[in-house]
Amino acid sequence: MDILPTATALILIDMQKGMNEPRLGARNNPGAESNMLRLLAAWRRSGRPVVHVRHMSRFPGSVFWPGQRGAEFQQDFEPQPGEHVVEKNVPDAFAATGLERWLRQRDIRDVLIAGVITNNSVESTARSAGNLGFRAVVAGDAAYTFDLRDRNGRLWPAEDVHVLSLANLEADYARVLDTDQILTAAMRAGAGRG
Known about the structure:
The protein is α/β, with parallel strands linked by helices. It has a single domain (9-189), classed as Rossmann fold (3-Layer(aba) Sandwich). It has helices spanning 32-46, 99-105, 118-131, 158-172, 179-193, and strands at 9-13, 50-55, 84-88, 110-116, 135-144, 148-149, 155-156, 175-177. It has a six-stranded parallel beta sheet with strand order 3-2-1-4-5-8, with helices on both faces. A two-stranded antiparallel sheet has the order 6-7. Strand 4, helix 3 and strand 5 form a beta-alpha-beta unit. Helix 1 runs parallel beside helix 5 and helix 3 (118-131) runs parallel beside helix 4. The two termini are 16 Å apart. The model has no long low-confidence stretch (mean pLDDT 94). Keywords: Hydrolase.
């Protein structure tokens, strides 16, 4: 079986203007957006399903508070007609959003997850995907996170947080692949379809 069947849905998480706010701190993987765009372009060219997830915070001080600039999609990641948009209020894109139902109604069993924040919305969404029985792949180089201070006051560099989060996912919930691997597998699946 192909790693990424032609019905695999690309789920792009929280690519909103608020992610560029300096107050979020230092991040890792400066090439993440270009890898996300490569995946998005390939999915659009092949007519595969695309889902855009947007976080709408319940907290007025958040960069994702509804009605303000930070809640808007970044220009390069604005949904096109026919692409599904999911709005969430918690990190998990499956929680109270209808995403699971939308996928099941279309008989989509495979999901490719990319976006931000690796150890928050990406990880929680991938965990739910795995727990709900979807075959999940996370694009490790098409995600990023920020430095994180633990409860003891230690500051963990974003890259350490990122790789540990991906290791958590790979243990039980999802395969973690790089963009080049994903595009190769997707091309192979597309060629097999014709």
